[in-house]
Write a structure and sequence with these properties.
Elements: H1 3-61, H2 66-85, H3 95-102, H4 106-117, H5 121-139, H6 144-150, H7 155-166, H8 170-177
Length: 179
Amino acid sequence: MDITVYIAVALALLSAIAILLVVRSRKVFEQKTTTLTTLVDTWAEQKQQESETVAKEAEEEEPQTDTQEKSNELFSRIVKLMEDEKLYTNEELSRDMLAGKLCTNYKYVVKAIKDSTGNSITIFINDYRLGHASRLLRETDESIAIVAELSGFSHRSLTRHFQAKFGITPSEYRRNHRK
């Protein structure tokens, strides 16, 4: 055989080997790419599920915001001040006076009371006054005028507020609830 034929056969074999290597390399590359794509997709799905779980847990927990916590804390301070110092017995008590005692803005006081009780500051204060007046009516022999004054009301306003809350006058209440 002629050397040319040997060279041609050798080149054909080398070309075939090169093609086989390229094909094999391509298959290996495709397999590795597929494996990598699968891993990335699996990881992405896991991260998505984790995000959804965290979001769902956050929705279920619904923690109080700092504003709500501050409002609740302020309301606790208001109640303590009202009970300890009996501020409601002062007929002149106002939202500004209460805010001044708490070293805060009256708007925060109004919001804390509204958020915690659902009532206005006037109703909140009058409820304390009416509670105090009803105790005095049950436990003392003081006149209605004195009970009104000791509770932060005028005589007329005590009667009006008392009837609105209890449906009877202070005198009727005293007769019905005397100890």
